Amino acid sequence: MSEDYFSGKGKAPMSSEPRESDDKSDSNNLPADGPSNIKSMTVGNGLTSRHIAHVQNMLNNEYDSGYGGSIADADHPGMSSAVGSPQHGQPQSGAIHQMWYNQQMASLSRSIGKALELLKGLREMNESWPAHYPSVQRADVSSPERPQSRPGLGHAYSTMGDVDNNGPEAPPPQLRRAMTSLEANDAESSRAAENRVPEPPRLVTPQIAQEFSILKLDLKLGALSQVELVHSLEKNSIASLLDGKISTSIKHLISLRDRISDTASKVLITGDLNAGKSTFCNALLRRKVLPEDQQPCTSIFCEVLDARENSNVEEVHAVHNGSVYDRIDESTYDVYSLQELEKIVVDNDKYTQCKVYVKDSRTIDESLLNNGVVDIALIDAPGLNSDTTKTTAIFARQEEIDVVVFVVSAANHFTQSAKEFIWAAAAEKAYIFIVVNGYDTIRDKERCKKLVLDQVSGLSPRTHKESDELVHFVSSNAVPVGGPGGSGGDGDDDPDDGDKGKGKADAADKVRDFEAAEQSLRRFVLEKRARSKLAPARTYLLNILNDVHTLASVNYGVAQSELDRVRRELKEIEPQLDSSRKARNEVSDQIDHNIEETCKEVYDNTRSELTSSIEYAGNYSYDLPYPGLFGAFQYAEDLKAAMLSHITQTVAKCEDFARAKSVQGVNATKQLGILHVGDEFKNLKFLPDVMFQRKKDALARQVDIPTELWDFVDWTTLLQRQEKFAGTGMALTVAGAVVPRMIGMSSWVDQALMATRLVGSGNLRTLVIPGLLVAVFAASAYVVQQIPNSLPPRLANKISAQLAELDYVHSNSTRIATAVRRVLRVPADNLRVGLEQSVKELGDRREETIKVKGESERASKYFSNLVRSSESQRNDVLAIDLDALPHGQVQ
Ligand SMILES: Nc1nc2c(ncn2[C@@H]2O[C@H](COP(=O)(O)OP(=O)(O)OP(=O)(O)O)[C@@H](O)[C@H]2O)c(=O)[nH]1
């Protein structure tokens, strides 16, 4: 990855001219074991192979001694004085710095790449396993030095403080989950939590707002406090808020990587209106390039670049409003000569920025633009308080700026807008380079110094701490300049300008002061670039890795805890599921068996009851008085009706029996239901009376038995008796029947025998005819007399025969048994459904638990890796020491 940054990126490729440095991009790291293995590198646009070779030789020979004057100034420890002094080997020092810078940049780029991977992974994980956002309690951590109510632009990643204030480097305060479920044994993931009531709060105590710096969720909605709001938030909302934070962080990391891999350094020269920004810029260039005026004149951003970036052609590219500048694409800008710059810059509405390509003929150790180390762009901005839009634009641009040079008028000191800008800039930039211009106009210089430095200490304490290097009192107009617009450096307005000799000495002093400031600025841009450019990336990385580590630790705990819980749950569910399945099968068999048994019993009972009822219908006493011969037919009808009614009653009795059996069967099923399914079976209601509601007279309509004359004669009995006495002759038989009533004999045969004995056989022959008549009469009388006895069996037989034809017994038995089956099936089916349902529910629960288990295992593994990798990444970033001097330089 690092090759990308050193071979292809940055501004070098913009030049169409081949550069020596373009060939030297295969290495960017200083070897740990010394400088002998140093290869080549890309160093801005000016370092030649001659420089590299020289650096290597020098390092090989004098590795320990550094560079002549590179020993730190005793008064300014940490601020090397080597750079900028040709006699002290500045180019070599610059090269060393560039190599060291590249090394740090490569490390940071790698770390950013890894942090991006971690964040992308976390975002994916958060989609499938919504992450817990922890609440924490922490020991008081004093906030960094930034003022509490600092106005202006804030940056999320700056809330933990910068590298120098022990913020991210100090061990993070111990986190302790205060309100999440983790401390309880049953901490759950979001998914499982759905099954739990009430859901544990997923975040947040207000402390989290202080603990997390980048992934902190800003929850503000109406009058709701953060805690209230969080409790009202559903877990997925929190996950999506977190997702938004992660995405923003990913974007910011990408832009940070682009920024640090950009080999150029952008120096923004800003300050109050008319403070002398353009004059200072021109003095740095030693050319009057930018228009200066006593009245406000700079209305657009003028970015001054080395002409070599524009094929060594000096010209101005005025960028069209709304266009993104592309030097290759001329449609994005208009070309002007340097002489025409003034008309673009002053009172112009057509452009908001221009690129000014200038040649700097000074040597690389003198020139800022052509410094041999890094491409520098000087951006002259409109005055801060010129108008609100421009002021806002300056505030916004400072994010892409590596170094801020703030020009303040020695006469006016810091205005309100100046203070606001510095507050905002200090949030990201550790240091600000302050130029107090127009110092020549101040009479009481010491007082001015003191007042300004006091103000600086309030605005940027770190800058104040190194004020000797970072705060300069100069007179920019005293520096001789040439180029378009003529030369300056007059010092004519010096109030002390008495005699010429003294004036010259003063002018020389002013130029010296300016050169000192210039050298400090070179050091600041070239050497402290690591701080100005890399420190924000490092700070941000530490903060985001710290947040990720915290989040990972908490979520690892939650995932583990959830894993334990689901494992326990599975242990409970699995045997429950087995027994539920077993119960379902057993109970199903049992209820089938119960139904079959009950139905069989009911069928058999109905069959036997009805069969015997029909069979003995003729024997039953129906309590019907025989009305005599003339009412015999009616008697037969009544008898039939009574018999059928009797049979119908038997059917009703069988139905009652069936009802009782149904009640028993339903109750048995109910008990099984209560036992295996639950209380819903307690409310099972069964109404047996609703069974067999069909009309009971249906049978009378089905059976149609006409009464016949023969029904009144019991031929069977009659013939049996006749056979018994066949030998005594017909006459006797007949005679015997003559007087049955007179002598009170019990049967007509007995009477006939009696008559035979009385009349003798001789006479009998003469009596045959009358005897026969008598016999017929007697038989008829007998038949009539026997009707109440002979009719019932006869009718019963006929009914029985017809019912048999109708298959009455079987069909009724089947009907009743079927009704019972139907009744019993209702609760049985419910019970089966209930059992099936509980098996299904348990099965579903098991499936869900297995799924949660899988997710928790995955989450646990993922977060445990994340804990490790974020920690190791954080250590890697901590090891990038931007304050350490590069190899070969000592403090
Ligand atoms: N005496 C004195 N005058 C200065 C000095 N620097 C700049 N000036 C004068 O101050 C006036 C404004 O200077 P500019 O460089 O145009 O100021 P500026 O900040 O760029 O102005 P705007 O861009 O319009 O905000 C000019 O007339 C300069 O000659 C200085 O050090 N001493």
What does it look like?
The structure is a single chain. By secondary structure, this protein is α/β, with parallel strands linked by helices. Among the domains are: 1-70, no CATH class; 273-414 and 432-527, Rossmann fold (3-Layer(aba) Sandwich); 577-709 and 774-839, no CATH class. The chain contains 24 helices and eleven strands. The strands form two sheets. The chain has a nine-stranded mixed sheet with strand order 6-5-7-4-8-3-9-10-11, sandwiched between helices. Strands 1-2 form a two-stranded antiparallel sheet. Strand 9 (403-409), helix 11 (416-428) and strand 10 (433-437) form a beta-alpha-beta unit. Helix 17 packs parallel to helix 23 (768-805) and helix 20 (730-736) packs across helix 23. The longest helix has 87 residues, at 529-615. It is rod-shaped. The two termini are 32 Å apart. Mean pLDDT is 72; it is low at 1-89, 136-209, 485-498 and 724-745. Residues 273-279, 292-294, 296-298, 383, 437-438, 440-441, 475-477, 493 line the site of guanosine-5'-triphosphate.
Summary keywords:
891 residues, two-stranded antiparallel sheet, binds guanosine-5'-triphosphate, Rossmann fold, hydrolase, alpha/beta, rod-shaped, GTPase activity, Mitofusin_fam, 54% helix, disordered N terminus, nine-stranded mixed beta sheet
SS-derived structural category: alpha/beta
CATH class of the domain at 273-414 and 432-527: Alpha Beta
Uncertain spans, ≥5 residues at pLDDT below 50?
1-89, 136-209, 485-498, 724-745
**What is the helical fraction, as a range of percent?**
40-55%
Biggest β-sheet description: 9 strands, mixed
Query: How many distinct helices?
Result: 24
Numbering strands along the chain, what is their spatial order in the largest sheet?
A: 6-5-7-4-8-3-9-10-11
What ligands does this structure carry?
guanosine-5'-triphosphate
The gross shape turns out to be rod-shaped
Mean pLDDT: 72
Number of strands: 11
By CATH, the topology of the domain at 273-414 and 432-527 is Rossmann fold
- The N- to C-terminal Cα distance equals 32 Å
User: Rg, please?
Assistant: 58 Å
Query: Architecture of the domain at 273-414 and 432-527, according to CATH?
Result: 3-Layer(aba) Sandwich
Indicate the proportion of strand residues: 5-15%
